[in-house]
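Morning. Coffee machine broken again, so started the prediction first thing and wrote up yesterday's gels while waiting. Chain of 180 residues, entered below exactly as on the submission form.
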Amino acid sequence: MRQEQLNLTGFSKKEKRRDLDFYPTPPAVTIALMDFLKLQPCVIWEPASGTGSMSNVIKNYGHIVIETDILTGNDFFNTYNECNAIITNPPFNLSEKFIVKSLQTADIVCMLLKCQYWHAAKRINTFKKSLPSYILPLTWRPDFMNGERGGSPTMEVLWTVWIKGNNDCRYIPLEKPFKK
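Came back before lunch.
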């Protein structure tokens, strides 16, 4: 029974998390967000850019992207960049800190989070204090392991979006975009 529970939630004892929670974001995840947002060209900071998988998609939409990552010596919490928006897939273990700092830094903040992220009692105050504009669950399960694990991806994710002055908190599922 314990093994079934672990597999249902996407974890198992034999699987070890990657260093610094580094899981590159598949392009379709960012494409779905960008198609939804329809932002005019602006400056976007990607503070957990890793190898640039998300940044490259954002650039294709005509934006200037500031890429920083702890892997390249740019710790988000010790850095400031002037920007219009912050869009990132934060390391899960630091996600709440990423949210708090991002909301203090930019008028538009988009965080890719696990679908059950806001279900935790310890995060309810953050949610209530900074009510999002949108909760955008993906209608597919992205493969963050790029086929390494084998089988179907198990983790469901959503975008949480804050737009200054808009805290209606609408829930809108995003469909997987066709390849462009």
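Strands lie at 43-46, 64-67, 85-88, 108-114, 134-137, 157-163, 170-171. Going to sketch it on the whiteboard this afternoon.
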